[in-house]
């Protein structure tokens, strides 16, 4: 038992540090590539510091997203290093079977996977929301008639554009088209709207353009009340991309869409993708073990890393393919996520069984 405990710690720490190194590398590359791609959006309002802040806010969700692939490549690197120095051979000669080494490698992966779930629930939604609000508020063009992103709703017969919303019942960048049948009476722009309760909102930073038969008038005021039958919670959820929502928010909004007879596919798919990431990580670790003890046991470190990247890309593409198929067919989103995971489990276990 003492020997197994030492093996658990040694193998587990080797894999853990390798996974963290791979994760840091992937996050660094993603940060640099995204910065280079987005630098063209920098202007007087959206400065370089704002861009860096937005990218920094996006790191928690990137951590959770890259975790399965990092576990795959990290396991290949960690166990591959032990195999290169013949330490794996010594461990197996001491009577430790391959499956027991696998348990040692999976222990830190399971801890990281659970940490990734916690980040998806509590950290990344808040950070993504701050990044979205910062980006959309600072990138708004002076010519606000060019509206991009955000969401449109119809309230009291008027069309309303909302640039962004947060979980505190605050809307940002509103444009209200006050109309009468086919006649446009006015356009009301507001920097933000705060929910007061009982379908009452307070608009702040109001600019009202009034259209009359002979002229156009513009009025400005610091704030004004606005009566609108909007549900702040559902409105907030509707303005967010499914990937930016927490697990409970995804479940809540998917349930709401289902109760209203609407399509909840993208939200259910994202919910199962996040919930099953720990299983994805374990499945890819098993595939990594099967290659270390199997066809890649004599390969160089570069060859193992390259193989890990190829396997990771294939897995992510399979996950995306079956996920999209579930949205277009009668396949439940749960199965669209589970099929690639089960395939990885099957391939890895079959290869390990042949070598044990």
From TrEMBL:
GO (cellular component) term, any one: ATP-binding cassette (ABC) transporter complex
Compartments it resides in: Cell membrane
Keywords in alphabetical order: Cell membrane, Membrane, Transmembrane, Transmembrane helix
Gene name, Swiss-Prot/TrEMBL: lptG
Protein name: LPS export ABC transporter permease LptG
Functional summary from the UniProt entry: Part of the ABC transporter complex LptBFG involved in the translocation of lipopolysaccharide (LPS) from the inner membrane to the outer membrane.
Biological process annotations from GO: lipopolysaccharide transport; transmembrane transport
Main location: membrane
PANTHER family for the chain: LIPOPOLYSACCHARIDE EXPORT SYSTEM PERMEASE PROTEIN LPTG, SLR0882 PROTEIN-RELATED
Highest taxon, organism lineage: Bacteria
Summary of subunit composition and partner proteins: Component of the lipopolysaccharide transport and assembly complex. The LptBFG transporter is composed of two ATP-binding proteins (LptB) and two transmembrane proteins (LptF and LptG).
